[in-house]
């Protein structure tokens, strides 16, 4: 595989799945919060755990977004030092 | 939506085996004869057969078939080694390369009339993803022992209540995003092709989508493989 094509695939894999990961993190956080509210505490604590779960989900989404940026920056630094 | 003609299902029906009419069957035999299962077996048989045909007798001066496989396997090998190191590549190459070849072939056969992609079913993609997900945790445990939990608690102790749920959620999000992305892309391709065939098949309307389908199939297989490699190498790395 040529270098341009390899870089294209790597960029596609790194950034192409961030949309799905972001959405999935928010859905998991929200679903966990709703589950805690409705099933474990029988709706007595609603809507607090839902909001907390949602906040954690959004934070996790941003965390996976930043993780990709940091990893990319590190690999750029590494390749800059090599050059 | 009713599927187009699937010839393995028709053959099995003629043989008297029960074919499920919903997405999954009720009895065990019906579940085994569901289209995504039979086409998974077909892809496996196809890969075994082609490998046997082209690599049956290895030669020093490779012929056409052996040359092709040497290109594919050599390319994948150097690609993995670049991303996760030589040692891990030697250990995990059979698994990841099998996943890559299986997903690529499974995506591509959906473009031929009479076949469907096994990866257009969430069961197949979720099974693949769960294997990858569990394997990356096993790799982490084997590399770090019980210190592997440090990957999930962040740098300082008073941030644990904040960072532990975030790390756990983003780890589980990998499970969902990896499976749903492959499933969604391939199912969208299959559904779009079926609808275009139904609407304007006589005017070759599905042809442009088929060209895009070849691209999507190969790219999705590569993306799955690359993300698997990235997760494995992240589990191997030291906690930051």
Discrete helix count of chain B: 8
In this structure, how is the largest beta sheet of chain A organized?
none
Using DSSP, what is the number of strands of chain A?
0
Helix percentage of chain A: over 70%
Could you please describe the fold and organization of this structure?
The complex is a heterodimer of chains A (83) and B (240). Chain A has a domain at 22-74. Chain A is built from 3 helices and no strands. Chain A has helices spanning 3-16, 18-40, 48-82. In chain A, helix 2 runs antiparallel to helix 3. The model of chain A has no long low-confidence stretch (mean pLDDT 81). Chain B has one domain. Chain B is 72% helix and 0% strand. Chain B has 8 helices and no strands. Chain B has helices at residues 7-14, 28-32, 35-55, 64-84, 86-109, 122-144, 160-200, 206-236. In chain B, helix 6 (122-144) runs antiparallel to helix 7 and helix 7 runs antiparallel to helix 8 (206-236). The longest helix of chain B is centred in the last third of the chain and has 41 residues, at 160-200. The model of chain B has no long low-confidence stretch (mean pLDDT 84). Chain A binds chain B through residues 1, 6, 9-10, 12-14, 16-17, 20-21, 23-25, 27-29, 32, 56-57, 59-61, 63-64, 67, and chain B through 75, 79, 165-167, 169-170, 172-174, 176-178, 180-181, 219, 222-223, 226-227, 230.
């Amino acid at each position: 595989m040529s270098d341009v094509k390899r870089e294209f695939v790597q960029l596609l894999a790194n950034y192409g799945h961030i949309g799905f990961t972001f959405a999935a993190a928010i859905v998991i956080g929200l679903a966990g919060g709703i589950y805690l509210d409705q099933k474990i505490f029988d709706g007595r604590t609603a809507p607090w755990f839902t909001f907390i779960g949602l906040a954690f989900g959004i934070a996790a989404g941003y965390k996976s977004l930043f993780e990709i940026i940091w990893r990319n920056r590190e690999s750029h630094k590494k390749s800059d030092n090599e050059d | 939506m009713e599927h187009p003609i699937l010839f393995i299902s028709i053959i099995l029906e003629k043989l008297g085996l029960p074919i499920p009419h919903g997405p999954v069957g009720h009895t065990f035999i019906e579940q085994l004869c569901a289209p995504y299962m039979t086409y998974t077996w077909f892809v496996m048989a196809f890969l075994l057969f082609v490998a046997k045909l082209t690599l049956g007798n290895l030669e020093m001066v490779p012929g056409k078939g052996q040359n092709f496989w040497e290109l594919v396997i050599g390319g994948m090998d150097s690609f993995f080694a670049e991303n996760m190191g030589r040692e891990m590549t030697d250990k995990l190459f059979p698994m990841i390369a099998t996943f890559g070849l299986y997903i690529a072939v499974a995506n591509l056969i959906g473009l031929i009339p009479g076949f469907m992609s096994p990866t257009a079913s969430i069961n197949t993609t979720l099974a693949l993803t769960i294997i990858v997900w569990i394997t990356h945790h096993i790799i982490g445990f084997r590399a770090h022992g019980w210190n592997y939990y440090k990957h999930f608690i962040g740098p300082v102790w008073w941030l644990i209540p904040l960072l532990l749920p975030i790390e756990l959620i983003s780890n589980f999000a990998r499970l969902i995003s990896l499976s749903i992305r492959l499933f969604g892309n391939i199912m969208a391709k299959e559904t779009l092709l079926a609808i275009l065939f139904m609407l304007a098949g006589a005017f070759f309307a599905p042809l442009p989508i088929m060209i895009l389908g070849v691209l999507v199939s190969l790219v999705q297989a590569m993306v799955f493989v690359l993300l698997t490699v990235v997760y494995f190498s992240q589990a191997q790395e030291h906690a930051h």
